[in-house]
Specification:
The protein has about 70 residues and is mostly helical. The chain has one domain. The chain contains two helices and no strands. α1 runs antiparallel to α2. The radius of gyration is 16 Å and the shape is rod-shaped.
Length: about 70
């Protein structure tokens, strides 16, 4: 499978999980604690943010490498 396909899968999957853990983190915040939900919210937020640029860069690198042959 091509890098852009993996990037899209990670993008949409981490977007859903980011939203889910954002709700969990908000409920933890209301309860007065900071726990695993907050950490996972940041992890999946970073994956959501960086997945497509990395996939696009990998796709361009693959295209350049294939074009040289």
């Amino acid at each position: 499978m091509r890098p852009i396909a993996y990037g899209l899968i990670i993008f949409f999957g981490s977007g859903v999980l980011w939203f889910l853990f954002s709700v969990v983190a908000a409920l933890e915040w209301i309860g007065g604690t900071v726990g695993v939900g907050t950490v996972l919210m940041y992890v999946f937020g970073a994956l959501f943010f960086f997945s497509l640029p990395v996939a696009i860069a990998a796709e361009i690198w693959r295209w350049i490498k294939r074009r040289r042959k």
